Amino acid sequence: MKIYDKLVRDRIPEIIENSGNHCEVEVVSNEVALEYLYKKLNEEVSELLEDKNLEEIADVVEVLFAIGKKYGYSEEDILSKRAEKKAKSGVFDDNIVLKKTW
């Protein structure tokens, strides 16, 4: 038996059962889920820093969308805010590092 105590995607229990294994799950409140989501975000960012691939980027984005949803924001809300900030302040394409202001 392996113990995880971590938030997983909604279909993971079904996938585990379909593979012939068994699992124990608990459905938690949104408040508790947020705590697990922040842990999951750290986990996914660590994996991204190690593996640096599209799958890990997608996992980080999925966790961020889930966090946003817990606060009442849709994916569209998040993407709209991103577009607004992009139009106002730009993105990170030019690799500009601010060193000082005066």
Topology overview:
Elements: H1 12-18, H2 30-51, H3 54-70, H4 75-89
Helix pairs in contact: 2-3
Concise description?
With 102 residues, the chain is mostly helical. The protein has helices at residues 12-18, 30-51, 54-70, 75-89. It is built from four helices and no strands.
Walk me through this protein's architecture.
- The protein is mainly α and 102 residues long.
- 60% of the residues lie in helices and 0% in strands.
- It has four helices and no strands.
- Helix 2 (30-51) runs antiparallel to helix 3.
- The longest helix has 22 residues, at 30-51.
Q: Which class of secondary structure composition applies to the elements? A: mainly alpha
CA(first)-CA(last) distance: 60 Å
Order of helices and strands: HHHH
- Number of beta-strand segments: 0
Largest sheet: none
| H/I helix tally | 4
Mean pLDDT: 98
Helix content: 55-70%
Keywords:
102 residues, mainly alpha, 60% helix
